Amino acid sequence: MGFLEGKKIVIMGVANKRSIAMGCANAMIEQGAELIYTYQNERMKKSVAKLVDESALLVECDVADDASIASAFQVIENKVGKIDGVVHSVAFAKKEELSGNVTDISRDGYALAQDISSYSLLAVSKYALPILNENSAIVSLSYLGAVRAIPNYNMMGIAKAALESAIRYLAAELAPKGVRVNGISAGAIKTLAVTGVKDYQKLIQLSEERTPDKVGVTIEEVGNTCAFLMSPLSSGIVGDIVYVDKGVHLT
Ligand SMILES: NC(=O)c1ccc[n+]([C@@H]2O[C@H](COP(=O)([O-])OP(=O)(O)OC[C@H]3O[C@@H](n4cnc5c(N)ncnc54)[C@H](O)[C@@H]3O)[C@@H](O)[C@H]2O)c1
């Protein structure tokens, strides 16, 4: 029996088979979880539908829109009732904010990246809370650029710093309500999102060269940690950022 047997978990952010959310989904299914997938828009729906079990519930949720988040969790409650957790694997910044100088980041670009990549965790948690069971968990995805100045990661690093802080504040608020909130700081992996960063190959190269076996972390490894953090096995971990990067952050 898997350690997520009987748990219903919402997974946000599957875009394609390379998505970190897909690694998380597969690991949680392996441990017995029943998943509900949210997708950003109709185009993403088609992509997600090809990847998941045809009986799985797919729900639209644009995290830039409160009404969409509210409606998504209403649909989820109507269809499956209470849930045991949410995985937030969502981020966005305009390409021009992921290169050059941070002094050139526009006010609009800053607000947009923060809105989708950081604020959305607070909004999603707000609308999920009424349908979360006791002993639930929320996990979000961060990157080393939150705490170091990584070339070209720029705006997303600033947004990830805010996200990591939001994780700690949320964790403190929701722990007494039986909801643990944590983050995973994943090593660089070639996904759709990372290709928005100028010279992203260098990020991936850095994440490979600094590992003991020169092989970068995989979505399966990140997914396994996600499954653990969503489960009662991690009951002692609250408001933490767990590095799943094969030691890249050490040097
Ligand atoms: N790939 C990496 O190297 C890496 C490393 C550390 C952390 N992360 C983080 O992992 C998470 C997942 O990214 P990924 O690398 O798997 O890329 P991805 O492109 O596969 O996933 C990003 C997801 O964000 C979703 N999204 C963007 N705007 C949205 C909106 N308005 N509403 C709903 N969904 C929206 C997209 O639809 C997509 O599914 C992100 O938070 C990313 O910053 C990625």
Notable characteristics:
251 residues, alpha/beta, Rossmann fold, seven-stranded parallel sheet, 40% helix, binds nicotinamide-adenine-dinucleotide
Question: What can you see in these coordinates?
Answer:
The protein is globular and about 45 Å long. The protein has 7 helices and 7 strands; from the N terminus they run E-H-E-H-E-H-E-H-E-H-E-H-H-E. Helix content is 40%, strand content 18%. Strand 2 (34-39), helix 2 and strand 3 form a beta-alpha-beta unit. It has one domain (8-244): 3-Layer(aba) Sandwich (Rossmann fold), CATH 3.40.50.720. The model has no long low-confidence stretch (mean pLDDT 97). The chain is an alpha/beta fold and 251 residues long. The protein has helices at 20-30, 42-51, 66-80, 107-128, 154-174, 200-209, 219-230; strands at 8-12, 34-39, 57-60, 83-88, 132-142, 179-186, 241-244. Nicotinamide-adenine-dinucleotide binds next to helix 1 and strand 5.
Query: Which structural category fits the helices and strands?
Result: alpha/beta
Give helix % range: 40-55%
Strand content range: 15-25%
Full CATH superfamily name: NAD(P)-binding Rossmann-like Domain
CATH class: Alpha Beta
Write the layout of secondary structure elements.
Layout: E1 8-12, H1 20-30, E2 34-39, H2 42-51, E3 57-60, H3 66-80, E4 83-88, H4 107-128, E5 132-142, H5 154-174, E6 179-186, H6 200-209, H7 219-230, E7 241-244
Helix pairs in contact: 1-7, 3-4, 4-5
Bound molecules: nicotinamide-adenine-dinucleotide.
Q: What is shown here, in short?
A:
The protein is an alpha/beta fold and 251 residues long.
